[in-house]
Predict the 3D structure of the following.
Amino acid sequence: MLSDFPLAKKNILQFLLKYLEKKVLEYSGGFVGRIPKSVMHEGSRIRIEYEDGTADESELASVRVTAEIDTPKLLKNKDEIFLLLDEMAREQAAKQANLVLDKISEATERIGNTIPIQGEITPNDFLAMLEKVEIDFKSDGSPIVPVIIADTSILKSIPRVFKIIENDPTLLHRFQEIMTKQKQNWDDRTANRKLVD
Amino acid sequence: MIERLIENWLTKASEKSFQIPFCYMLANEGYTILHLTRHCGMELGKDIIAKDPEGRFCAFQLKGAPRGKIKLSQWKKDLAHQAHQMVSTPLIHPSVPPSAPYHKSFLVTNGELEEEVSASIDAENRKWTEMGRPEFVLHTIVKGELVERATKLGLNFIPPDLDDFRLLLELFLEDGTDIINKHQFSRLIESFFEKAVKPGQRPHLIRGSALLTALATSSFTNRENHVAVIEAWMMFVSYLLWYCEKYSIDRRHWKNEFEIANQIIWTSMENLWNEISDEENFLVGNHFQDVFVRNARLTWYVGLLSAWGIYLRLTEGDEQQGREILRFCNKHQDKLDLWGESAIPNFLAYYWLSGIYDATDQPTKMLPKLLRTISSNVSKQDIVFPGVYHGIDESLALRWESDTEIVLKKNDKGASHYIEGITHLFVREGLKQEMTGLWPQISKVYFKSFQCNDSLDFYRWRNRKGTEVTKIPRPTQSWQEIRALSFEDAGSGIPNLLKNHAALVPLFLIVYPHRGNASILRWMQTRIYEHL
């Protein structure tokens, strides 16, 4: 029987898993990483009951990627393992992101929080989006800007949309109005934390 | 293999640890156990008092023989005197009427008696008979009989080649000084109860489960690790109720196992009390490290003893011991450590015990303090406040964890399993003005709970099926509405047999902190107040 080194191998596995986790976060553009996480110790379903009395319930979904190890290749160059982990991380990041986006789409469509966009995104589409989302503010009054997740072609056109809004007094005024309204809503949400009769 | 393990266990055990299996052997033979000793020298040689199937009272004195035999020198030095006390002094116990016929006396040993000892007992017995006092005869039960009786109890449900046996061995070989590994113990006991047996064999399986618990926890019993013994037997009780409720098993088939387990729990609690009630430091091992964890240890004791005080009040109407426990808790209240969500049931037990004996507003004042601390701890990222699924040792370890990723994973933020329930208990007090001040902070915390698919799953340590519920509180909350809800006390989700034993619930929550939710807190509060 060949000798084994369980302690060393345990640490190696932990190191590789951490590497994989880091890469998944990197390839998901930080978006998945920004979602608060918690470990579920029991059960297979999650229900969220909202303050308005509505509720969302869902089953746990698994995200799985597999890879095959080419042992002779790995013996020649053990760094091959990192290339393999990179590949797995890309696939995992895409699957995780898709899962989250599907959930968001499902929820937004159900409550009618969607905007149909034909072709390229316009300043009006962008402002309509900004109006629909709930924006939180920091204690100094500055907004916590929402993350935009979009197709590459849409993302590329966002700077152009910003520029148009900046240079058009009417659009700029509407933008400012929306942000003022969002701030008011935030102030209301904060001030509304109270017990009434 | 299991027979060899039982033999090894019984023959190597001290009288403290074979007392429990011996009780189950008696119960299996139709005896009713009335009393277990606290081993504190007050029992006049009687370790167990029981009633035999014919209704005659019996006293048993247990003697460990770790070297295999009780020698004449040992017999003469201390045992003969204790045996004499057992045979010649009447039984004094509330269940033994003064008019009852004189008791039968037994000396029980897990070893053999040296020939000279047997001869000495025989001579003494002959003397009593000749004097016309045959009731003073001392009967003996030795190693061989014990092993034979134990193997009849139903441990044969464990096939020797399965994982169960490995789990059992691991627990059996524990050093016994640590806290009990509840995850491991629950796997063992649950797997045992899940054996597919015919309905007629279920009572036999129940007896086996009790013996299995005694065997698995024997290292803790030997070490007089009272807290570990209490936790293990509370888990046994929970699984016993689970099994009996699941199959609607008639109470007469599990009454003995349930009552002996209760005796073990509450006798261990009394032993814990005797050990710590006059303690000042509560330090264990190296003081250099221990000073950082001793307040958590003390908090645990305050919770456990409070649960005992509540139990005594709800079952026996005892007030004196409860008041003494409360004095102990009050004396140490400024040292209590809320190490995480799993500490909260300890604070609640203390609050409930205070509510029973303290008519001032002191008990009520505990609640807003608790609410403020919980809401602040779950909100601040830099405070280590692990969730309800992390036990005391794990939670304390997290405070000293240098790997920030591990801290982030276990340090659940933004939600609490207990804040909703404690809010309701406080709302019941009607202090609207103070609640108005607290609500902005409380409403930022999500209310968590676990909803079992089947109410019987409540008894189990962990469940694969079930729903994790997160309730987002309303920012603007109506006082009338929350006040009406705070008085709801149907106890939905609590299984029936546990409801029938309300006095056990505070201890159950300390052992199973993740079963805490608003419904059980409201229900428990009502059960306590209806006894006052």
